[in-house]
Amino acid sequence: MTQSHNDKVTKMVALQIQELIRSGALSDGQPLPSQRALSQMLGVSRTSLREALITLEMLGWVHSEPRKRTIIVNKEGRVPDDTAPLWRLDYSAKEIYHFRFIVESHAAGRAAMYCSDKQVKILRQNLQSFNKALKMQDLVSAAEHDHDFHHLIMSFSQNRMFADCYDSYGKSFLETQSRPLGQRKRFLEMTIEHKNILDSIVAHEPTNAEYFMRIHILKAAERAGISM
């Protein structure tokens, strides 16, 4: 995923705060410092900090309420309220999952028909990176690898409009891919779902690739607390 300078700064801040949580420097139930103090501590603008905190809330690391301090949620994670509007676009998460269910399953089938050995190697490397990030509970990176996995499949479908659509609405897709990662006890099923899709593409089995992608999107929505 191509990132702007602001996106890179936001990711850097999210990674820094995530590491403070993972290392135990910020403990479960502890309120974060004020946004002013935290932005000064990290040397970033409050705008970048706010976007990073939204990213971390989508990943289940923190929880915030209006006019209250942001609280660390470390042990079990937390899935965001599915009624909350996406902060990047006017579409609801449910609308985006519906779109992904239809389009990405078709793209997976086409990728199974046309994917080259070189492209398969790229997908394998992505899956390895995704699994490693989950194992380390680096959820910021895991969400990005998840997004890249789906974007690659759209790109390898030999339909430029699919890939262009993912580029145009990439940030919103990334948010729907971040939400299920709040379900920390369900990481294994996420890796299995990705592997089933990849195995079908490698075997050039479009029907299976479409089927496993549909199952994956349905399960991802369910992990995000959204009924399809």
UniProtKB/TrEMBL annotation:
Classification via Pfam families: FCD, GntR
Domain of life of the native organism: Bacteria
SMART domains documented for this protein: FCD (SM00895), HTH_GNTR (SM00345)
Kinase is among the record's keywords: no
Limits of the HTH gntR-type domain: 7-75
Molecular function as annotated in GO: DNA binding; DNA-binding transcription factor activity
UniProt keywords, alphabetically: DNA-binding, Transcription, Transcription regulation
PANTHER family listed in its UniProt record: HTH-TYPE TRANSCRIPTIONAL REGULATOR LGOR-RELATED (PTHR43537:SF51), TRANSCRIPTIONAL REGULATOR, GNTR FAMILY (PTHR43537)
Protein name: Glc operon transcriptional activator
Protein species of origin: Saezia sanguinis
Gene name of the record: glcC
